[in-house]
Design brief:
The protein has 11 helices and 20 strands. It is of the alpha/beta class. The strands form 3 sheets. Strands 1, 10, 11, 14, 15, 16, 17, 18, 19 and 20 form a 10-stranded mixed sheet that branches. An 8-stranded parallel sheet has the order 8-7-6-5-4-3-2-9. Strand 16 and strand 17 form a beta hairpin. Helix 1 crosses helix 3. The two termini are about 25 Å apart. Bound molecules: pyridoxal-5'-phosphate. The site of pyridoxal-5'-phosphate has 13 residues, from helix 9 and strand 9.
Length: about 375
Amino acid sequence: MSSVIQHRPTVATIDLEAIRHNARSLRAAASGAELCAVVKADGYGHGAVPVARAALDGGATWLGVSSVEEAAVLRDQGLAAPIALFSEPPPGAVGDVLDLRLVAPLYTTVFATALAREAVRRGTAAPVHLAFDTGMGRVGVERSRWRSFVDRLPSEGLAVTGTWSHLARADEPDEPTTDRQLDAFDEVLALLDERGIDPGLVHVANSAGILAHRRARRPLVRAGIALYGLSPDVAVDASEHGLRPALSLTSAVAFAKPVEEGTPISYGHRWSAPTDGWVATVPIGYADGLHRGLTGRMEVLLDGVRRPVVGTITMDMLHVWCDDDEPAVGQRVVLLGSDGSDRLRVEDWASALDTITYELTCHLTARVPRRYDDLGHART
Ligand SMILES: *Cc1c(COP(=O)(O)O)cnc(C)c1O
């Protein structure tokens, strides 16, 4: 929201020191490899530009995004670091790829040809990272075409500065797929070697790869979710690796009322007060990205005390059962983050909803103002 008017207390706060700390920790975990800070999807909902700056301060040397459009936002804001794209844009985007100095992934001959032709026309060579599918099954040159793709690379207009692949099951540490993918990736590297092609900067690890698979730590690693201090999945817990969640989501009590035992609350009357007590209304709902499926499955910290969210979560408001403690309008409500020694985690929402942390932070909508906590870190 661009307006300077802000009365609604609901706000997402992003701790940039946590981002810097996580960047430093991930580099250390990857034995000093170069770190690509993945800031696609507006920095997983945290804000791509401030996160990118903090990650670079913390030692990241690359930024990773999924589209030319996302890269353009970073360049517009003055970020000069190398930017890797994770999927080929349509061939019509090659001019912008070059103008914005992006490192394009390469996995189709059509895109390779278009990019090379435009680069030659400009008297330059476009830096590219060859992308091979070793088992993810998404984008990348499929195994049956590895050889023909490499043999048909345009002879001018491209500079191969990197080679990469992507892991499908790195968040399952004992599952053999990752090892098989890494074996396949080594075959790719052997093929390039055979053809006399320098693979350049080699990269394969995402967050789970960095944290759970020593063999995946190559000269560059790509961290998204772990940079935000969140777990890729239950089996790879970010907090066990000393990573700190950057996002908190807070609001305040907007309305409080006493209710009698049996009073139904909210749409569908799916909940009624179990005893006489107090209900607080908090101005946040599914239009802010708070998934309606969390109805009956989440708690908040109201003035530091864990309280259940009751009744159907609505577009703009939710309800908190306070038992016989009278809440006060204006009291702090933490939905994610800590208050005192207690902490509410995105991971808990993800398991309640049978999804992953990624989806939930991406879903925070523009209605929630982002505030950046920089703990006195002065940028000049
Ligand atoms: C999104 C993405 C990443 C980051 O994955 P995380 O699990 O968030 O670390 C890395 N590489 C590629 C190609 C991606 O698309």
